[in-house]
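Bench notes, afternoon.
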Amino acid sequence: MKIRTLFNFLFLLLLPLLLNAQTEQGEGKEWSLRECLDYALQNNLDVQLSKLNIADNKALLEQANFARLPNLNGFASHSYNWGRSFDVYTNAPITQRVRSNNFGVSSNLTLFNGMQIHNTVKQSQQNYNASKADMEKAQNDLMLNVVSLYLQIMFDQENLDNSQRLLGNTESQIERTEKLVNGGVLAETNLLELLAQKATDEVQVVTNENALAFSILSLKQLLQIPYEEPFDIIIPEIADPESDLLIESASEIYNTAEATMPEVQSADLNIMSAETGVKIAQGAYYPTLTLQAGVNTFFSSAQAVQYSSEVIGYEETAIGYINIPADLSPDGVPIQYPVFSQYPQTQIIESDFLFWDQLEESLRKSIGFNLSIPIYNRHQVKTGVNRAKIQYQRAQVTSKQVKNQLRQTIETARQDVLAASKTFDANQRRLESLQETFRITESQFNIGAANQTDYNVARNNMINAQSDLVRTKYDYVFKMKVLDFYLGKTLEF
């Protein structure tokens, strides 16, 4: 009983969570603009490729820094030789099969090569910073696209709501007109015209539903959300934009954008990188000085036996005589004394000259400097320098293009804002006038003083004015956001 009571308690505790999960799964999550932006920045493939470019340039920077260090390489060989060869110890010719092994390590350190290593590190750092700026540019473009599609969904949703309200209004008019026609107050043609208007309104609702569906699909594709996954956005309340906003001059906006826009920073870094590339190419004109060191040893099976000599005794041999004249002799008679010398008697002893013994005895060490002086290399260095200078000039022209494009974009965006402001203000006045016209015409139509055609004309004019006002409103808002973006402001509603 206690277990059953506990189970019931847990079921009641988890029931709201289960219902909430089912609701979210069925209806789909509502996304705010901030959530769309964060999700896009995290999952967009173009941004991910930019991040991989950063990682690649970082690896190149690390490699350029490691080039300052000496290298260290080992080698080993194992080979067999048949036929006539030479003993590596005595240089005597031999014809037996010889097994040989070589082992060693070597190191090389570049001391000077025309500052090429230093400049390569510098260029790699510049390329790394440029790739980070390129990623920021990709993120900025992505965010502007997200904001544009988000506003398009809001515009299409408001258009759909308006068309649905108009359809409901038409259906109410049909109900009222049916009663008047059945009572003989109005002709049946009035009802038929309203039914035709209802069909037109239904088509407009379907058209707006399709436009909204395509806008949602476009945003989902940009966010790389599967088509089948439910998706909807949170529509914030956006007040009508003011028509008397103070907008900075194009030059002021450009000065701010030039100091902050990543595409400008990337272009400037590319100029610096190209300039450093010229120095790298010119470094090939200078000599290269390297420090080299190595240790190696070897083994040969031809010397598997080592020969040595051993002293086993000494032999005396007369090598001359000492003559003593008579006057110096004690007996007065000349005396001749022999002189002897001892020669060692040796024998040859064979011993095994083992693998490790040979390696130890054959160990050699070396250290030295190497200077390579370029004299003539078929104009390769000169061509490399000329190409590096061309790349530098190309980077300068590209930077000017980027800045000119930015300036033109800002000038166009500012003019778009001014035009959108005037258009929005004019559409507001137009809608107010047409709403009043429709109100009067509707009142006259309700008392029979206006016919169905006049009513439909006034109604359609008001509908078109409402749609134009909504379109110009979101167009105005988006273009203001573009200017805010170039001024470094956050993309929020």
